[in-house]
Amino acid sequence: MEKASHLSVIVDLSPTQWYLSAQATNPYPLPIETFLSHLLAFLNAHIASKHENTLAVFGAFPGKSVMLYSSTETSTLVDDAPPLDANSYPPFKTVDTTMLQQITHELEALGHMEEEPPCALVGALTKALCYINRITHPSTSATSVAEDPAILSEPHILILSVSPDLSSSYIPVMNSIFSAQKLKVTIDVCKIYGPDTVFLQQAAHLTNGSYIYLERRDALLQYLIMSFLSPPSIRKVLAAPTQDKIDFRAACFCHKNIVDIGFVCSVCLSIFCQPVPVCSTCRTKFPLKTLQRLSVARPIPPLANSRNTPPLTSINNGAQRFIPRPANGGMNS
C-alpha cells in the first residue's frame, strides 16, 4: 500500500427498507443500529490502514442525499467538536460522533411522511464522483506538486444498498458509470437487503468492482473487511469476489420499465419497449414499412419467471434485426 487510498461510502438509509430488514421473520434480521456499528468499525479500519487514507460518507435518504462525513471537511459537518478522550483514538472518535449526529439529524428532519419518496441513491453517487474528481484533480494554483495529481489518491466507491431498483434512474446511473470509468474509479456494491439490483450489478461489473449479495447479514463486518477494505491495486494479488451472473437488462425510455426485449434507435441509441414511429429523444422518424415488419416479426415475450436469455433487438439504419444474447448475458452494440 504505497499510495494513499480514498474511500467514498454511499449508505442507503431508507427508513422503510431498514424497518423491513429488522423484522424477526427474516432469516437473519439486521436492524439499523447493528448495521451502523458494523459500518463504523469498517470505516475505522480504513482510516487505520494508512495514515494518508481519506474518507467520505454520503447518505442516501428519501428524496435527498447528504454528505455525512468528510476527512477534509469535518469542521463544516459537526456542530460541536467531540470531547477529547484519552482512551480513544481521535480520528475514530471524530468519525463515530459525526456520523451518528448527521444520521440522527437527517432522520429526525424527515418527520412523518404519508408516502416515502424514492431513495436518492443516484444523487449520492453523483456527489461522491464530484468529490473524488475534486480531491484527485486539484487546481494547479492550489498545488505546486509537479507530479500528476491523479496519482495522489486511489479512489473507490462502496455502495451499501437496501432499496430495490428504480427504473427511472437507469439513465442517471449509466451516466454515473461512464463518469466513474473516465475517472478510473472502482464501484463496489454490497446488497444488504432486498432483491438483486440490476443497475448496481452493471455498475460494479463495468468499473471492475465487486458485487456481493449478503447471505449472512449478521456477518456484515466480515464481508466488508474481507471484500471491500483493500484498495483496487491490492486486489490484483488477491482473490477478490466476482459475479457469477450479471443482469444486463435496461429500462425503456418510454415507460421506464426494465425490459428483456428492446428496440434501439439507430441515431441516439434510445431504448423502447415497442416499435415507435418517432424517437422521443432525437425525433428521428422511421419508415412505416419498417415498423409494420417489426411489429409482425416481434417475438413472443418469455414468461416473467423464466431465467432463459431472450433475444435482443437493434436498429441499423432504419432496419431492425434480432440479435441473440451472448451466453454471458452481455449486450451487443
TrEMBL record:
Belongs to the TFB4 family. GO terms for cellular component: transcription factor TFIIH core complex; transcription factor TFIIH holo complex. Its main location: nucleus. GO terms for molecular function: zinc ion binding. It is found in: Nucleus. GO terms for biological process: nucleotide-excision repair; regulation of DNA-templated transcription. Keywords: DNA damage, DNA repair, Metal-binding, Nucleus, Transcription, Transcription regulation, Zinc, Zinc-finger. This is General transcription and DNA repair factor IIH subunit TFB4. Component of the general transcription and DNA repair factor IIH (TFIIH) core complex, which is involved in general and transcription-coupled nucleotide excision repair (NER) of damaged DNA and, when complexed to TFIIK, in RNA transcription by RNA polymerase II. In NER, TFIIH acts by opening DNA around the lesion to allow the excision of the damaged oligonucleotide and its replacement by a new DNA fragment. In transcription, TFIIH has an essential role in transcription initiation. InterPro entries: TFIIH_Tfb4/GTF2H3, vWFA_dom_sf. Component of the 7-subunit TFIIH core complex composed of XPB/SSL2, XPD/RAD3, SSL1, TFB1, TFB2, TFB4 and TFB5, which is active in NER. The core complex associates with the 3-subunit CTD-kinase module TFIIK composed of CCL1, KIN28 and TFB3 to form the 10-subunit holoenzyme (holo-TFIIH) active in transcription. It comes from the Eukaryota.
